[in-house]
Amino acid sequence: MMQRPGIIQRLVRFLAESPAAVAAFVATLGALVAPAVGLAADTGFTSAVAYRDVPVVGSRNLVWVIAQLHLLLAGFVLGVPIFAWLCEVVGWKTGEKRYDKLAKEFTKLLSSAYSTTALFGGILLFILIGAYPKLMAYLSDIFFPSFMVYCALFLLETATLYMYWYGWDAMSEGGSKVFHLFLGFMLNFFAFFIMIIPNSWATFQASPVVIAEGSDLARAWAATWNPTWWPVNIHRLIANVVLGGYICGAYAGIRYLSARTPEEREHYDWMGYVGNFIGVFGLLPLPFAGYWLMREIYQYNQQMGITLMGGFLSWLFILQAMLIGVLFLGSNYYFWMGIAHRIPGSEAQYKKPILTMLVILLLCLGVWMTPHSLVASLAEAQKMGGTHHPLLGVFGVMSAKMTVSNLMVLVTFMSFLMYWQAGKQATVGWARVAKAIMNALLVIAGLAVIALGVYGYFVPAIIRINYFSTSQVGIVLFVLVTFTLLTSAILKSAKTTTEMVWGRMPPRAGYALVLNAVMVILLMTLMGYARSSSRVHWHVYGVMRDSSQYAFSPALGYAAVLMAANTFMFCMIVAFIFWVATMGDKAKPAHGGKEKSGDGHGALPAMAGGSQTLDKQI
Fold first, then answer.
1. Which residue, 500, 538, 508, is CA-closest to 605?
2. Residue 524 and residue 466 share a domain
3. Where are the alpha helices (DSSP H) in 284-423?
4. What is the extent of the structural domain holding 436?
5. Confidence category of residue 597, pLDDT binned at 50, 70, 90
6. Whole-number pLDDT of residue 245
7. pLDDT of residue 228
8. CA pair distance 539, 517, nearest whole angstrom
9. How does residue 180 score in pLDDT terms, banded at 50, 70 and 90?
10. How many domains does the chain divide into?
11. Which of 475, 424, 419 is nearest to 280 (CA)?
């Protein structure tokens, strides 16, 4: 008994010296406690209450906020390691140190966010256990084996992340570097399974598959492999890459705006380009993954699909169209600014194609955000002959929206190809033939997508959903893959006519990167609300009814307030993470010498709408 205080003191000292260990301890302890709730049912114990409320805030609102912040942080933490590791691999293969530096800077953001993510996960788990004991007992009884696997994976990922980050400099050469790359691969391997296991718990609530007999492992596996599990896994994996890419782009944009030396501006300009490229790379297939998810929801339960797409939640998809449209415009605008400012002499050459693509994007966005049913007074409805506008109502159905979304993906991809080819001249003899084939394929693909969209008005919905829409996706994916391979082959031996100049982008480029990140965050909070509200008054759809005072779907206005609040709080958390990640850089100028400034390349970037002359007076 006399030795016990010494053990406790050593434990407290260890936890105090490692904040990340505290977060990991809380999350792991919570995951271990949760199954005990389910085991209580086997011992004859039942909870005295099914629900507990939180004064003033409300238990559902508190869970809503904490769960959304945890999911956003988790998306960032799980998305960043993917392209950080890929950048490190590229740097190792090519010998270019800038890629390794970029990967390390991405991982620095990851190390700052990891403990915060785990902390929010632990808080969420304890709130769920306290506020919804009956639901958690039910889920724990089914998913007990996966809880144990999740705990083990969490510990493995934590240890791998620590070795990966703190061993970066020590494992920078030779065989040690190969081992470090292996650690990065294992970090992503563990992160993938840490993502898909909790996805099974959430998707089970929307599309449950329950068996009453069998072993604990068989019951858990049946519940895990539910109809929407893999669609959500793919959708969230891509969305995490998009979120991580755009947030890293926003970080680079902020650092670019505050840079004081030409070297810093060049580095963060390049980092912003990489972040935007990663975000666009994930954004292109994301609508297809979302469509697959909605298709599986319709096949599992048509009423749930109607609630989402045809009920009161259908207006969310108008808001979704606006957010995605702004995201597409922001990403393309950043590419176009790169052509104008990084590649001298290219602005005049690409001015007309850029204007054409802008017009197409705006027209497609107008169709995408057109509602099928208009909010109209009785007199207005009588003049229109119903709630559907005689002209605009045609654009409010899914056949039109799938068509324009595919066209927007094609236009965005062409913006990237245009940026990729700017300042380069092909030297291979078959380049002209290949470009002619690509132009013909682009025209044919665009016409085919439009033709399938128009024909979709004249066939039953099942044919349009199962055949026409999937054919549109297949055509666009074929164009993306084929054009990427052909362009890569053409430019492999191309002659560079104009060197790309980094660090010359105007300040509005940094603002565009920040705007893209905010749009992605709003979009994820919006769709999180949509997926949860599709269950209406069920905790587990069709199995466990919600009998609490919150057994209703929140109104859209009320939900919008919480979504905006979640976005603001997440941005503040990310800003804090950025600040923590850059604290170590502030002392470098004192040791590295005098900062460089002055006219020309070393000048501060002009304020938006301002001038270099005015900037010098600030």
1. 508
2. no
3. 286-300, 302-309, 314-342, 347-368, 378-384, 398-421
4. 347-373+386-421+424-497
5. very low
6. 94
7. 95
8. 32
9. very high
10. 2
11. 419
- Do residue 326 and residue 357 come from a single domain? no
Task: Give the Cβ contact number of residue 298 at 10 Å.
Answer: 18
Tell me how far CA of residue 347 lies from CA of 44, 140, 465, in angstroms.
75, 60, 41
Which amino acid would we find at residue 180?
H
- Characterize the bridge pairing of strands 495-496 and 424-425: antiparallel
Q: Are residues 486 and 605 in the same domain?
A: no
Neighbouring C-beta atoms of residue 275, cutoff 10 Å? 28
pLDDT for residue 410: 94
Tens-digit pLDDT profile for residues 566-581: 999 999 999 998 888 7
487 and 502 housed in the same domain: no
Q: Which of 392, 371, 375 is closest to 322 using CA atoms?
A: 371
For 321-374, the pLDDT digits (tens) are 899 999 999 999 999 999 989 988 887 888 899 999 999 999 999 999 888 777
DSSP string, 249-302: HHHHHHHHHT--SHHHHHHHHHHHHHHHHHHHHHHTTHHHHHHHHHHHHHHH-H
CB distance 228 to 203 below 8 Å: yes
User: Is 192 found in the same domain as 85?
Assistant: yes
Secondary structure (DSSP) of 16-33: HH-HHHHHHHHHHHHHHH
Q: Kindly report, residue by residue over 236-284, the tens digit of the pLDDT.
A: 999 999 999 999 999 999 999 999 899 999 999 999 999 999 999 999 9
Question: What pLDDT is attached to residue 587?
Answer: 55
Tokens of 484: 């990427």
Q: Read off φ and ψ for residue 212, nearest 5 degrees.
A: -85, -20
Question: Is-contact 332 361, C-beta < 8 A?
Answer: yes
Amino acid symbol at 43: T
